[in-house]
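I am still getting used to backbone structure tokens and would like to learn alongside you. To get us started, please write out a protein record for me. Once you have written the record down, we can walk along the chain together.
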Amino acid sequence: MGSDTDATATSAQRIGILFSNTERLQVPALRYLLLELNSVQKHFEYELLPNDMPESPLEVLNNDLRGIERIHLRDFEAPKFLIAYKEYLRNVSSRHGLQEEPPNFFIFITMATFIDNYYSTSPEFELTDPNSIAILALGNWEREMAPPSILECILTMTIQVSTEFVSPSFRHSIHLGTKGCICDFNANPKDTKFKVLNGYLCTSCRAVLVKNGLSDLADDIPRILSKGWLGTRSDPGSAAGILAHLKYDLFVTKDLSPTLWERFQKTLAEDGTKEVLDLVGKIILALVLLYLSLHGIKLKQ
């Protein structure tokens, strides 16, 4: 169990991020969005790390499996991975003549699924040994959960588990009632959207952070989660504009990747003339060919 008086964060806490089984996600857009967090807040410093350690205890997350046993993974495989992975990173750094030590905290993002339908887990740890890993398992994401997009969900969950890293007792603030708070339990996964859309830190959760000397973080969480810093797709220099160029439109895309209709909506928003007409033409041609095929009509050469 975490300390009742967690240490005050005096500098940005480094957090490594790893990906596995994320082929269905728009990974370049997700990687950019997570790194953009480094520019909009001062509490956490995220870094992308390789997931290629041989014989990883978390290899099961790399497989396209449904129904991984969460408790065993959390209590046995995750701690073993943490020790082995930090040593692996030290060896890789040494081979390249690099001096920086690995971070103490890690977030593992995967499209695997826990058998009990939880979407995150992490071992308990004490501040006397500040090393931990959180696993976000989002394989049960469904299109109807949007809005928000799955990338926004990952962003919110990243901030939540990051806060637990610097304040271990914060994880015990999770409450049954759905308040639109970052610590909503969400027994129904479909209710997860409210913590993402609302970006709220409830009174009791805020009190825990204030008690633990993290008032600045408590003040900053609603601003980060409100996502006003994303800007608009029409501003090419904003985060939303850059994400659109990376083929992920936060304001249109609902699924893991954009559908044909969502790509059409994005194109319509960006250019109402040539590109739209070209796309419409392709859709009409595809429909005509489908109609002819279904009715056995062959075009003359």
About this structure: The chain has a mean pLDDT of 84. The chain has one domain: 13-230. Strands lie at 13-20, 44-48, 66-68, 105-110, 113-114, 120-121, 132-137.
